Structures are given as structure tokens and as C-alpha cells.
Amino acid sequence: MNAHPARRESRFAIAILTALALILYGLSDKARTFTFSDAEGYYMYLPALTMYGFDKIPLKTKEQFSIVEITGRYYDKYPAGVALLQLPFYLAALGFTAIVQHEPVDGYSPPFQHAVLLASLFYVMCGLYLLYRYFRKYYAIPIVVLGLACIFFGTNLLYYTFKEPGTAHAYSFFIWTVLLVIAPRIYQSPSWKYFILTGLTIGLLTWIRPTNILGVLLILGWDMTSLKTRWSFIRKHLLKYAFLPLPFIVFSIIQLGLWRHMAGESIFFSYSAEPGFIYWKSPKILQVLFHVHNGLFLYAPVLLVAVGGLIYGVYQKQKNFILILLILSLATYAFGSWWVWWFGGAYGHRCYVDYLPLFLMPLLYSLHTAYQCPKRIWAWSLTLMCIFCIYYSIGMTHAYHYPWEGPNFGWPEYRAIVKRVVFRGLLP
To answer: How far apart are CA 154 and CA 146, in angstroms?
Structure first.
């Protein structure tokens, strides 16, 4: 008996994404250490809590982590949400090294590095699959596939999936996707199940990166037709809404306990030693979007197609587009207000990786609108533009080496790299 067409389609999608993950794993640098710098901060909870403690952990980037004099322990300013998601892969590496005994059971040997890479690949591929399943209900398969290709290959999501898999961005991308898929369910079928799942998702999302608290707006505003009807819905399900912040509170208590254990005192803002949001009165919006130092659209120009679709969708009063515009605008304001608005040591503006699931909706709307146009030139032109952006992004990802920022990297250096990437093999 033949399988249902939808099941065959899902199995085919899973097979393609699994093959993609295996290809990227095969192309990855097996000798590379993925737990360094920020990535080590997210990861160090695992070896510290299972092997060494925070006082004897053999850190690889010690200059980035200070020992607290009172406790004698290393202080880790990064939250532990990423470590929680990495935990199953870490335990698999722990079991593998204990049984095979070809590599040290130290939390940092190659099997543990591979575990970090595999975790990133797994969560990103799951995110892409969930996005495919979600948007397949609204758009044709070719449009969804092209849109997902643009998001993965045409942005720095590719880079943070398999070149720097230990950072928080791939994990945030996955959890934002889960939130995008689950949050509408509380309005379509307001059962306790979906409220519990939504609460856990937003709690974990903010435990990975606190700025992801903007996900609350997605929960409160999704599919809203008016404030009056939404308020009426909230009052009707007030007890369920009261549950939503509980996972966030539980995760916060755990994190505060960990910071108190490390520092010997209560820590409520782990980045207090840094200047913080010093540009909040005059945020560096244009720099965040267009500066040669990691400007969003310079390193992911395909997102201009999404922005065009977002603006047109707002004009056409497409559902949820104003909400997406609000969330992305607030995120951009936050990034532009931060003291290091370019978020250094990065390929492209890495903070937007988290929000790529939100960019996908207007991107698909742009593609759908072009393909619905009677003049096929619009569809072909936009498709060719997307393909070129993917080609450009893959080339730039391959060409990147730290750091593309600072006084030694400006517009002349950027233009030279772009010229080499775009005309690879055609120029002497």
C-alpha cells in the first residue's frame, strides 16, 4: 500500500535535509576547535558540571574568563540555554569516549568537538524542516524550497551552522522557528498543551539569548485583529496566560543560582562589566544595516527581498506583517544601541541569524507575488537575483577569515573580496 502523498513529501524533505547535514559535516574542518571564545562560554557548563567544577575546568580561551577571587571559580557571563540543547550530544560524546577509549574523556577532545558541530547541524536542519512544514500550507513547494535556500545558503546562517556551531545563533534560529510554529496554536486551539509548549519555548529562547525576549510580542500579537478581541481572548484564558512566564522564571532561577555559585554573589545582568547600550539615544541603525563592518545587507543581500516583501505586505495589510516589522525594528534598535553595534569577531551581523524565521515569511510573500504576476519577467528576475545572492553568500562564507573589521578592513578591502568572490575563476 502506497504511503500518503503528504507523508512521502515529508520523508523526502527529511532525506534531503539529512543529506545536507551529512555533506556539511563532511566538508567541515575536523581538526578545528569549535569551543573557543564565546562558544566556550556557552559550552563550558557541560564539562564544568559533569567533570571539573568551575574552578578546575581546563579552558581553552582563559583570557576571556576571569577567576573570581572570593570563590576561586571561573565566571561565565553567558547563559546556559545553549548548553542545555547541546547536552544530549555531549552525553553521546561522553559515552563514546568512555567506551572506545581512543580519545581523552576530557570534554574537549575531537568527539566532543564533533558533538558541538552535530548539535548545530541537527537543530538547524530541524528548524528548516519545521519551516518547510509550516509554510508549505500557504505557498507552493518550489517557492518554499527557494525561500529556505535563500535563508540558509544566502545568509550567514550557513556560516554559524558549520563553521562556528558553538555560538548561540543556530540554536536561537531553531527555537525562534519552534515559537513561530507553536505560538499560533494557542489561538487556533487554546488548550493547555499549546500554552505549556509555548511557555517552555519562550523560556528557553530567553535563556539562550536575553534579547530574544522580543518573542513575547510574537505570542501576544500573532493573528491579532484588534486589541479589543485579543484582550477578550486573554481574559477568557487568563490562567493559561499566567503560566507562560513560569518556565522563564524557573530558567532564570537556575541561571542566577549558577552565577551565584561562580561569583559568590547574586548576578542579575551578566554583562554589567561592559559599557552596555550606550547608543540608545542615537542608535547606529544605518551602520548595523549597511556598514562594511558586518552590515546586515552587505553580507546577506537576499534579505533585501524579504524587506521589500515586508513593506509591500504591510501596504497590502497582510496578516502579521506589522507585527514582524515591529519585532525586527525593535531588534535593530537594540543592536544599534549596543556599544559594539557590529558585534565583533563575526561574519555578517550575526544577531540577525536568530530572527531569520521572521524574515522568511515576507521573503516567501515576495516570491509568491512575483510568481503570481502575469509578466513572467518578474518571477525570473527575482529567482535569478536570489540564485546570485546564494552564490555570493556561499563565496563570501568560504572567503571569510577573522577579522573583517577594525582599522585594517574597510571599503577597499571589502570591494576586493567581493570582486574575487563574484568573478572567481574569471579574473587573473
So the answer is: 10
- Name the residue range of residue 83's domain: 5-422
Residue 428 lies in a domain: no
Q: Do 393 and 300 meet the contact criterion of CB atoms below 8 Å apart?
A: yes
Cell 507553536 found at: 182
- 332 burial (CB, 10 Å; 0-12 / 13-18 / 19+) is buried
Residue 272 to residues 180, 259, 269, 288, 413: CA-CA distances in angstroms?
31, 13, 6, 23, 35
For position 95, what pLDDT does the model report?
95
CA 96/CA 91 separation, integer angstroms: 8
Q: pLDDT, tens digit, for every residue of 35-60?
A: 999 999 999 999 999 999 999 999 98
d(CA 417, CA 400): 9
Mean pLDDT of the chain, nearest integer? 93
- Give the chain's domain count: 1
Which backbone phi and psi does 134 adopt, to 5 degrees? -70, -50
- Tell me the CA distances in angstroms from 71 to 55, 100, 237, one per residue in order: 8, 36, 46
Task: Note the pLDDT tens digit of each residue in 91-136.
Answer: 999 999 999 878 899 999 999 999 999 999 999 999 999 999 999 9
Residue 106 lies in a domain: yes
Check if the beta carbon of residue 120 is closer than 8 Å to that of residue 167.
Answer: no
Per the domain annotation, does 18 fall within a domain? yes
**How much is the pTM?**
0.95
Residue 427 resides in a domain? no
Which of 46, 28, 44, 128 minimizes the C-alpha distance to 89?
46
DSSP string for 66-89: PBPTTT--B---S-SHHHHHHHHH
Identity at 281, one-letter amino acid code:
K
